[in-house]
Write a structure and sequence with these properties.
heterodimer, B: alpha/beta, 6-stranded mixed beta sheet, 4-stranded antiparallel beta sheet, 34% helix
C-alpha cells in the first residue's frame, strides 16, 4: 500500500498541470495584490476617528435592542444579543476602500470559489489523463486490486487538492498581510490569525470534497472533460433547475451546503407559502451532507471501476 | 509445469445497438514454463482479449484461467508481481520522460534507481532516458514498454504484438531481445499476427482463429501438421534430373532453380538412388520446409480466414 501511494504521489507530482497551477496561482495573487496595494491609500487619523464613532454608536444601538423588536427571537446560531451584535457590528464596516487586516477571512471566503474550481480540475485531471493516455491498463497490470488502487488514488487527489488550497490561501493571506503593513489598518483584527486559520481549514476541507466529486465523476466518465462535464451539469443545470422548481430542496443542494460550510453561517429552510422559516441547517450539518454525497459518489465510482472492463 | 492454463475461455461483448460479439469462444491454452511461446492468429482472432483476461483487465464471460499457479482474476495479485506485460501499445505517459515513467512503476515494485538503469541499458535507451516519451519512435516506445515489463524481473513476460508498427531494424532489435529473454529461462509469451517473426524466436506456438485454438504444440510439430511432404533437389542439369526422376516414377516440378519432388522427406533415399543410377549428382537435397504462414493459412482455411 505504501509503495502504491509513493508511486501515485510521484505520478501526481510529475504532472505539468500541477506546476502550471502553482505558478498561475502565485503570479495571479502577487500581481493582483500589487495592483490592489498600488491603488489603496492608508486612511487618515480623521477617517479612523469617524469610523470608530459610528461603530460605537451602532453597537450601542444594537445592544440596546433597537435592531430587534422585543418579541422577535434571535437568529439561529446566536445565544445572546451581545454575541449577535459583536458579530454583526464590526469596525471594518465603517471604512471603505481600505485594506483592513480584519477583512482577510472574508477575502479568503470570497476567493474560495476559484480554489474549489481548481480543486475540481485537479481531481478530474489527475485521473482523467490516465484514461486518455491508456496507462490505466499499465497500472492495473502492476496492481490488479482495483479498489485498493481506487482508494489510493482518491487519497492522492485529496492530498494534492488540499495542498493546493492551503498554498493558495496562505499565499493570499501573506501577501494581504504585507499589503496591510504597507498601506492598511489592523484595527479590530486581534484574532486575525485564528480566524484566518479557521477559514483556510474550511476551504481545505471543501477543496478535498470538491476534488473527490470530480475524481468520482471522472472515474465514471473515464475522461477529464467527461468528469467535469458531469459535475457541471449537476451543479449548474440540475441543481439550478431543482432550486427553481422546488426551493425547499435547498437543504440538499451541494452549492448551498458548500456556501454554508465555508462561510460558517447556517442557512434557513423557508416555507414558500407562508414565508416562515421552517428550520436552519448548521454549517456542521452542511458538511455532513457534503460528506455523504461525496461518499455516495465514491462508492458508485468504485463499483463502476471494479466491474467494468479496461480496454 | 504450465505457467498459463486457459480452459474454455469465452468473452462476449454487448454491442451498443444490441446484439453480442463473441471475442473468444471456448479457447484452451497451455503454456509450459521456459522459452518463447508464440500466440498466433489474425487480427480479431481474440489474442488481445485473451491477454486482457489473463491480466485481469477484462472479465471472462466463462471458462477458467490460471497464471503462475494462481487463479485469475481472484488470485491475480499474488502472481502479478512475477508477470511483466505489454498489452497492444505500451501505454505510458507521453509527457513524462522515459525514465520518469519507469521510476513511477519502479516505486510500485519497490525497485531501486539502479534497476531502472539496468532495464534502460537492457533495451538500449540509456541515452534517451530523459527525453519525453512523445518524442520516441514507435520502436523506442516498444522497447520502453519492454523495459517497464522487465522492471519486475519477471519469470513470465506477456508481450502483445511486440513487433507491431516497427521498422525492419526495430523488428530485429525486438526479436533479439525476445530471444535473449527466452534464453535466460524466462517464459516469454508473445502474441502476433506476423508469423515469420514468431517462427524465428518461438519454441512452441498456438494458432487461434475466431476465438478458438486450432493447433498448438512445438513449432516443428505444427509445421509438420502443415504438410512438409516434399523434398527440394538441386543439381547442375535440372532438365536431366527431372527426366531421371520421371523415369524412376517420382513426380517433380520446377521451383525456381530447383526441383520439388513430391515424396516424404524420410524417403529421400529413393531420389538420390534414382539420380545416381543415371549419373546425375546432387548439389542440394533438403526437406521442403513449410513456414508458419503456410501452415496457418492451411489450418484456418475452414474458418474462412485462409486464402
Amino acid at each position: 500500500m505504501i509503495r502504491l501511494l509513493a508511486s501515485e504521489l510521484l505520478r501526481a507530482r510529475s504532472r505539468r498541470l500541477l506546476w502550471v497551477a502553482v505558478v498561475a496561482i502565485a503570479l495571479g495573487i502577487v500581481v493582483g495584490m500589487s495592483i490592489a496595494v498600488a491603488n489603496t491609500d492608508r486612511p487618515t487619523q480623521e477617517q479612523l476617528d469617524r469610523a470608530q464613532r459610528l461603530y460605537e454608536r451602532d453597537l450601542r444601538q444594537c445592544l440596546d435592542g433597537q435592531w430587534f423588536p422585543p418579541d422577535e427571537p434571535l437568529p439561529e446560531g446566536y445565544t445572546s444579543l451581545e454575541e449577535f451584535c459583536n458579530d454583526q457590528v464590526t469596525p471594518q464596516s465603517y471604512l471603505s476602500g481600505v485594506m483592513e487586516l480584519s477583512q482577510l477571512p472574508e477575502l479568503l471566503r470570497g476567493t474560495s470559489t476559484v480554489v474549489l474550481l481548481l480543486a475540481a480540475l485537479l481531481g478530474a485531471s489527475l485521473v482523467g489523463a490516465e484514461w486518455s493516455a491508456g496507462s490505466m491498463a499499465t497500472v492495473l497490470a502492476w496492481e490488479p486490486r482495483r479498489i485498493r488502487l481506487f482508494a489510493v488514488r482518491a487519497a492522492v487527489v485529496v492530498v494534492v487538492a488540499v495542498a493546493m488550497a492551503v498554498f493558495a490561501s496562505v499565499l493570499l493571506g501573506l501577501t494581504y498581510r504585507l499589503g496591510v503593513s504597507l498601506k492598511g489598518v489592523t484595527t479590530g483584527a486581534d484574532d486575525w490569525l485564528g480566524q484566518t486559520g479557521g477559514v483556510i481549514g474550511r476551504i481545505a476541507v471543501l477543496a478535498a470534497i470538491w476534488s473527490l466529486f470530480a475524481y468520482a465523476t471522472t472515474m465514471i466518465a473515464r475522461s477529464t472533460a467527461g468528469g467535469l462535464g458531469i459535475l457541471f451539469v449537476e451543479l449548474v443545470v440540475i441543481e439550478g433547475f431543482l432550486r427553481g422548481l422546488r426551493p425547499s430542496i435547498e437543504r440538499w443542494v451541494l452549492v448551498q451546503n458548500a456556501t454554508s460550510w465555508v462561510s460558517d453561517q447556517p442557512f434557513a429552510i423557508i416555507n414558500q407559502q407562508t414565508r416562515q422559516v421552517i428550520s436552519y441547517v448548521s454549517p456542521t450539518a452542511a458538511l455532513v451532507t457534503l460528506l455523504v454525497y461525496a461518499g455516495i459518489g465514491l462508492v458508485l465510482a468504485a463499483a463502476w471501476f471494479r466491474t467494468r472492463d479496461v480496454t | 509445469m504450465a505457467v498459463i492454463e486457459v480452459h474454455g475461455l469465452r468473452k462476449t461483448y454487448r454491442r451498443l445497438r444490441g446484439g453480442v460479439v463473441m471475442a473468444v469462444d471456448g479457447l484452451d491454452l497451455e503454456v509450459p514454463e521456459g522459452g518463447v511461446f508464440g500466440f498466433l492468429g489474425p487480427n480479431g482472432a481474440g489474442k488481445t482479449t485473451t491477454i486482457r483476461c489473463l491480466l485481469g483487465l477484462v472479465r471472462a464471460s466463462d471458462g477458467s484461467l490460471r497464471m503462475l499457479d494462481a487463479d485469475v482474476p481472484r488470485g491475480l495479485s499474488r502472481a502479478i508481481g512475477d508477470v511483466g506485460s505489454i498489452v497492444e501499445q505500451p501505454a505510458l505517459f507521453p509527457r513524462f520522460s522515459g525514465r520518469r515513467n519507469l521510476e513511477i512503476l519502479a516505486r510500485l515494485q519497490g525497485a531501486k534507481s539502479a534497476d531502472v538503469d539496468r532495464v534502460l541499458a537492457r533495451v538500449a535507451l540509456t541515452d534517451r532516458q530523459k527525453d519525453v516519451v512523445k518524442t520516441y519512435s514507435l520502436g523506442m516506445k516498444q522497447r520502453l514498454g519492454i523495459a517497464a515489463a522487465l522492471l519486475k524481473d519477471p519469470s513470465l513476460l506477456i508481450l502483445d504484438e511486440p513487433a507491431n508498427g516497427l521498422d525492419p531494424a526495430g523488428i530485429v532489435e525486438v526479436r533479439e531481445l525476445i530471444r535473449s529473454l527466452g534464453a535466460e529461462g524466462r517464459t516469454v509469451f508473445i502474441s502476433s499476427h506476423i508469423l515469420s517473426e514468431v517462427q524465428q524466436v518461438a519454441d512452441r506456438v498456438a494458432i487461434i482463429a475466431r476465438g478458438r485454438t486450432i493447433k498448438a504444440g512445438a513449432v516443428d510439430e505444427v509445421l509438420a501438421a502443415g504438410g512438409a511432404t516434399g523434398v527440394v533437389v538441386r543439381a547442375a542439369d535440372l532438365g536431366a534430373a527431372e527426366r531421371a526422376l520421371r523415369e524412376a516414377g517420382l513426380g517433380s516440378e520446377r521451383a525456381g532453380d530447383a526441383l520439388r519432388v513430391a515424396v516424404p522427406p524420410e524417403d529421400a533415399a529413393s531420389i538420390t538412388r534414382a539420380l545416381a543410377e543415371r549419373g546425375i549428382y546432387l548439389s542440394e537435397l533438403r526437406p521442403d520446409a513449410v513456414d508458419l504462414e503456410t501452415v496457418f493459412l492451411e489450418l484456418t482455411k475452414d474458418e474462412g480466414l485462409g486464402s
